[in-house]
From TrEMBL:
It catalyses: O-phospho-L-tyrosyl-[protein] + H2O = L-tyrosyl-[protein] + phosphate. Keywords: Activator, Developmental protein, Hydrolase, Magnesium, Metal-binding, Nucleus, Protein phosphatase, Transcription, Transcription regulation. Its EC number is 3.1.3.48. This is Eyes absent homolog. It comes from Ameca splendens. Residues 60-111 are annotated as: Disordered. PANTHER family: EYES ABSENT (PTHR10190), EYES ABSENT HOMOLOG 2 (PTHR10190:SF7). InterPro entries: EYA (IPR028472), EYA_dom (IPR006545), EYA_dom_metazoan (IPR042577), EYA_dom_sf (IPR038102).
Length: 392
């Protein structure tokens, strides 16, 4: 299935000022009309009793933690990215911020309709994560600041701050200490070892999961090796991670608790300013895709699965990616993950790959999947424009 003419965005459109929009457009007969997108930034942060114990805040020397408001109302604040100009001609279709009552009445129907069967999906957008949807690694290396003329010390400082939050969440809430050596490609890969036991009163800290020899000796190569009892405990952890993700994907503040929540909101704001609303623009494209009934966003990342889930939550991407649509290529490589995705959704679907790296581009071309290169924010703007115009 050919999508017709496709022009890849070129480096000349990626300037320090972000001027210009690249002209990468898909044209063909497979365009699906889009409806009004949901706004992933409208995340309600209400407090939950479970998993809301307050960890010690990471005290960043250059970023004093905002003091939390002790009132109950402090748990209902939203993260709102700085406003970005609407697409010309599309102002009428961009909804204003809805009140909480409207959010409760209509949000569920708009964001989480009954998902179509995998076999009914017509178009699958396979996304890379780092330096495509989010800016993270290039902050730490200084690549982003040197390329786009940003304050390098500020960029590195924010990158280290986010790195601390990613691993703090992974360790304290998502069992990364237990699962680091037992990484999986997909959240359900060990589900067959789960006996469905009620975990509401299960004590993960005293179930003897970590053997004296260390979990690494039980997780070798591409498979997982251990006794039936140990494998069941492993499956329990992945099931709980899935439950936590699904419970808090739209309520990350409730998962973090105060004062981590206030620190996270501040970090999100500062990163969006530094990166010229990069994430906001990516969220716009993701929302346009999710608003279509027979299109789906899939994430394939080289980050290990648990830290990847932590990244997705902290960058506010939970509404864009159901946990079943997240794959880690750490162990197997992206080609293997792409193959799994194509087997899942079938040959009838059209696959579009969006990324910044050589690996996903090479695999996409090998599999005859159109590739949209993201080298700068205007590439994401052009992607949203192509989606809005139904070229893609």
């Amino acid at each position: 299935k050919s999508l017709g003419v496709f022009l890849e965005p070129t480096e000349k459109h990626c300037t320090a000022t972000g001027a210009g929009i690249s002209s990468g457009l898909f044209q063909g007969t497979h365009a699906i009309s889009s409806s009004t997108p949901f706004n992933p930034a409208q995340q309600e942060f209400s407090a939950y009793s479970s998993y809301s114990q307050t960890p010690l805040a990471y005290q960043h020397p250059e970023h004093p933690v905002m003091m939390p408001n002790p009132s109950p109302e402090s748990h209902t604040a939203d993260y709102h990215p700085p406003p970005s100009p609407p697409t010309p001609g599309k102002e009428e279709g961009i909804p204003g911020r809805r009140g909480s009552d409207s959010k409760l009445r209509g949000r569920k129907r708009v964001i989480d309709p009954a998902p179509p069967l995998d076999s009914d999906i017509e178009r699958v957008f396979i996304w890379d994560l780092d330096e495509t949807i989010i800016i993270f690694h290039s902050l730490l290396t200084g690549t982003f600041s040197s390329r786009f003329g940003k304050d390098s010390s500020k960029a590195v400082s924010l990158g280290l701050w986010m790195e601390e939050m990613i691993f703090n969440l992974a360790d304290s809430r998502l069992f990364f200490n237990d699962l680091e050596e037992c990484d999986q490609v997909h959240i359900d890969d060990v589900a067959s070892d789960d006996n469905g036991q009620d975990l509401s009163t299960y004590n993960f800290g005293s179930d003897g999961f970590q053997s004296p020899a260390g979990a690494g000796s039980l997780c070798l190569g591409s498979g997982v090796h251990g006794g039936v009892d140990w494998m069941r405990k492993l499956a329990f952890r992945y099931r709980r991670v899935k439950e936590i993700y699904n419970t808090y994907k739209n309520n990350v503040g409730g998962l973090l608790g105060s004062p981590k929540r206030e620190e996270w909101l501040q970090l999100r704001r500062e990163m969006e300013v530094l990166t010229d609303l990069w994430l906001t623009q990516a969220l716009k494209a993701l929302a346009l895709i999710n608003s279509r009934p027979n299109c789906v966003n899939v994430l394939v990342t080289t980050t290990q699965l648990i830290p990847a889930l932590s990244k997705v939550l902290l960058y506010g991407l939970g509404s864009a990616f159901p946990i079943e649509n997240i794959y880690s290529a750490t162990k197997t490589g992206k080609e293997s993950c792409f193959e799994r995705v194509s087997q899942r959704f079938g040959r009838r679907a059209v696959y579009v790959v969006i990324g910044d790296g050589a690996e996903e581009e090479t695999v996409a071309k090998k599999k005859n999947m159109p590739f949209w290169r993201v080298s700068c924010r205007p590439d994401l703007e052009a992607l949203s424009h192509a989606l809005e115009m139904d070229y893609l």
